[in-house]
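SEQUENCE, STRUCTURE TOKENS:
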Amino acid sequence: MKILWICGSPVLGGAERATLRIAAELRARGHQTAVCCPDASPLARAARASGLAVDPANGGWRPPSAWVAISRALRRKRPDIAWATAATEWVPVCLSVSHRLGTAVVLARHMTLPISPPVRWLARRRADAVVAVSEAVRRSLRGIPPRLISVIPVPPRFPPRARVPTATERAQARAALRLDPTGHWVAFCGGLNPAKGIEDVLHAVGEVNRRTLTRVVICGLKGHERALGQLPGWIGRFGLAGRVSYLGEVERVDTVMTAADAVLLATHRSLGEAMPLTVLEAMACGTPVVAYAVGGTPEALGADGEAGRLARCDDPESLAERLAAVLEEPDAAAAMAARALGRVREQFAPERIADQYERLFRRIGGPEHN
């Protein structure tokens, strides 16, 4: 099949990284998979590095130039599937696709935030399928007929480890990152976005640090200058002077997660999480996860204690309590991480996710493509 993925995201976030993994898997199966995106974007570079063809938009990605680029790419490629993975692309894709040319429209949703009524109306009329990456996302798609919606999760970018890392392997990962080898390390991959919960994380780690030496390594975008300015104050208030390491954007996030005794996810309810890639990748690294029970996170981890610990949303004291239990009970934490490895293999392996997309694309692409 000919598949054209359309995405204008200016950053290479979790949704883009996960979709790249799926697109590369589909390409490996013989499907002609291309990406329409801004030529200078991080996505274009990553797509080329993954072996995907790029149909570049050289004139920027703001209306009307984005709409023109999408329309031209659709006319050039004449794909069987036009696959839009951000709501900003839903409108131009729906308006540009001609079903007379045999192109089916697949709209993917990676957020639990509501979609505006006009966009929902257009999706109802023009989409052949809408993919929700979790049941939490499906519930947010009010006004879109259930017959159009398929729930297909995202995969981690790398395969799961064979087993939980040993103490030696964690020490080697810390050495590679030049982290202090003593005490506990907790990883947070949400950058300095306040809605991702950076303050809550520092609060929780500070509470645990009162009982046992605990440090936090932060990676991800700086993003918010205000939060960057507040960071020293938070570090001082929570008693973490000299115990916070900020690495910025990190490509080998698996090294960071392997170095840590636990990975925290503290996204606020106001932002929500559809199917957090951070959680899935921590599970694939064999590192215990402590997370707010927000959005699709419980779908990834199961019940509290099954494949990770779930804290009350927007409650850093609850986060600290769950984190302390993980750090103070290493045998139970390792057993939980081993269950998480099995869960990610069974439910979120890239080949399994690609199977679901392939079946969906073949079903809506018409009998001539079967």
Observations:
- The chain has a mean pLDDT of 93.
